[in-house]
Amino acid sequence: MRGKDVRLEGVAITYPNGFTAVQPTDLRIEAGEFFSILGPSGCGKTTILRAVSGFVEPSAGRILIGDEDQRGKGPNARPTALIFQNLALFPLMPVWENVAFGLEARGLSRRARRDKAQELLELVALPEQADKKPGELSGGQRQRVAIARALAVEPAVLLLDEPLSALDLKLRQHMRAELRAIQQKTGVTFIYITHDQGEALTMSDRVAVMNKGVIEQVGSTDDIYSAPHSAFVASFVGEVNQFAGRIVESFGAMAQIETAHGRLLGRNPARLAKGTAAILFVRPEQVGFGARFNNCFDARLLRRDLEGAFVNYQIETSTGAHLSLHQTNTGAVPVTVGEPCHVGFDSGAGLLLPEGPVARTGAEVAAQ
Amino acid sequence: MRAERLLSAYTWGFLIFMFAPLLLMVLSSVNDISPPSVTEWQGLTGKWYAFFWMPEDALRTDEVLRTLDRERFVGCFGNSLYVAAFVVPLSLLLGLAGAVLLTRWRSRVNGLLWWVLLSPMLAPGIVLGLSALVFWGRLGVNAGLFTIIMAQTTFVAGYPMLVLMARLQRQPIELEEAALDLGATPFRVFWRLTLPYLAPALISAGVIAFMASMENYNTTMFAKGGACTFATEIGAMARNPNGHPPVINAVGTIIIVLTVMAATAHTLLARREAQA
């Protein structure tokens, strides 16, 4: 199996009811790459996946897979295989027939199909389950059957639509590693759709972050997390503290921002000029206790949540700002709840980005 | 408490209303008197049943039975089976097509189409029978078994359509999409996925269509011309001015027994499937 590259050239997708799910998009996914499209629900990521697999025809632009224009080709004529969110295993067929279904359509003999199915079931570590029905398998096993079934047709591109979302946490983490291993073993191009930034960051070579039909940034996982280009990317990927304000001083790669909670110093990679509305972002793991930082607050500890290896602190500054602070759990308890303290972060940890839409917080999503 | 007593009284009342006539029919089917009666008990007999297989000489000695035309009755019953043998597959085919159309082809006219396809079920049976008679008559086809088949199919097809639609709506569309995505042609998707999924519904739809065809009277009455079916023949016998022969009660009893047996078998099978 060999992966092929996928190119989107000016692809826009508007549904018959007039809703534009995907704004004109150019994107190149390299052959053999594990590529994730990350975004909140309704951002258009699934629509892109369905367009690549052939269930939706772009309203404009074209999709190329390995230099071949896919316009006018149905899902059964494309070198892609899609793993559905609900897996869509065929309930009445035994596992091996599920896996070999794509080979049946290619006219292979029953014997050849059975052999090939066995080979794939071994690849996904399910050699003993060939004659069971999908309903008799566990969630993780069903997951693997879906992967084997998709790989059976030797696709150049494997498309995955949040296939892990139904699994519990431990299994999900295990399946991430397994998916990554299968991808490396087979060399197939994986396009993985998810709203879970943890999944995108742990598995992918590169990630595209998408919002409201627009790809906001494409980059390596490190870039996406540490060097986001927009307020949306910074706020959607990982947890982050935000301070909105206006740039008051700009000197080279750094700038100072006037916020409701005082003047703060941060990196200014976009070279935002004085007077620009901006947001300063700082990751919770970059915030610390003490007065040694050049961005410092008088504060009070509201809550201490032990997560195991990490401790999350919720802090309220004297100006009323709420901050999260993450520390590795060393056993020491630096501050007790309710007590006043100093917190802060270094200017290098603060990132200034132009003001723009930010991702909704968990509380906002829950309130909806 | 009072409400509960009221409810159970109502339930008993309803059951009596439903089953008392059936009980009377069963009793009179073993009473040696014609026309049938339960008030005038003349002794237990099996001759109303034996009518169908007793030798010709024995038949001629009974003064009630010898007035009946056994051969005609059996012939009409055979006609019903013949008609059903066409109506069942035809209506399954049409109903399946309609069900697939209405569940898989999303269109603005779906709502209208649903009414159009089901309207024969709702239209008065005599209208269907009459229209079939007129239509085929104009085409030069004489009324007979063929027109019965055509007229029955128009409305019987609605039952399979409803049964199959209910089942198709429960199948996730992703299954078909997944099969297409794996390279299957739409025909293979239908053959390997949709049809096996529909199999149990097709069987029950077939049974319903068979019953609807066998028992249909009004549409058949208008479309039959000179032919007869089981239902029209029973109708004709029941219109006997001297009261109908208890043979009809015997036939009715057999139908009840068969129905109860089928329902029991269905329940047992369903229970076994649920346990498996």
Summarize the structure in words.
The complex is a heterodimer of chains A (about 375) and B (about 280). Chain A has ten helices and 20 strands. In chain A, helix 4 crosses helix 5. Chain A is α+β, with helices and mostly antiparallel strands and about 375 residues long. Chain B is about 75% helix and about 0% strand. Chain B is built from 13 helices and no strands. The radius of gyration of chain B is 23 Å and the shape is globular. The chains are: A alpha+beta (about 375), B mainly alpha (about 280). The interface of A and B includes residues 53 and 88 of A.
The gist of it:
The complex is a heterodimer of chains A (368) and B (276). Chain A has helices at residues 45-53, 95-99, 101-104, 110-123, 139-152, 169-186, 197-203, 221-226, 231-236, 362-367, and strands at 6-14, 20-29, 34-38, 60-65, 68-69, 80-83, 157-161, 189-194, 206-211, 214-220, 241-251, 254-259, 262-267, 277-282, 288-289, 295-306, 310-317, 322-328, 340-345, 351-354.
- What pattern of helices and strands is seen along the backbone of chain A? EEEHEEEHHHHEHEHEEHHEEEEEEEEEEH
Q: What is the domain tally of chain B?
A: 2
**Helix run count of chain A:** 10
> Strand percentage of chain A, roughly?
25-35%
CATH superfamily of the largest domain in chain B: MetI-like
Order of strands in the sheet with the most strands of chain A? 6-7-8-3-9-10
Give average pLDDT of chain A, whole number.
91
> Largest chain interface and its two residue counts?
A-B, 25 and 17 residues
Key features?
heterodimer, A: 368 residues, alpha+beta, Rossmann fold, OB fold (Dihydrolipoamide Acetyltransferase, E2P), 2 domains, 10 helices, 20 strands, B: MetI-like fold
